[in-house]
Amino acid sequence: MSKPHALIVSGLAKSFTMHLRGDIELPVISGADFVLTCGQCAVLGGPSGAGKSSILKMLYGNYAVNAGSIVVRHRGRETDLAGAEPRKILEIRRETIGYVSQFLRVMPRVSALDVVAEPLVFSGAGREEAARRAAGLLQRLNLPERLWALPPATFSGGEQQRINIARGFITDHSILLLDEPTASLDAANRAVVLQMIAEKKAAGVALLGIFHDADVRDAVADTIIDVTGFAPDRRAA
Ligand SMILES: Nc1ncnc2c1ncn2[C@@H]1O[C@H](COP(=O)(O)OP(=O)(O)OP(=O)(O)O)[C@@H](O)[C@H]1O
Question: How far is the CA of 230 from the centre of ligand 1 (A)?
Answer without folding.
Answer: 14
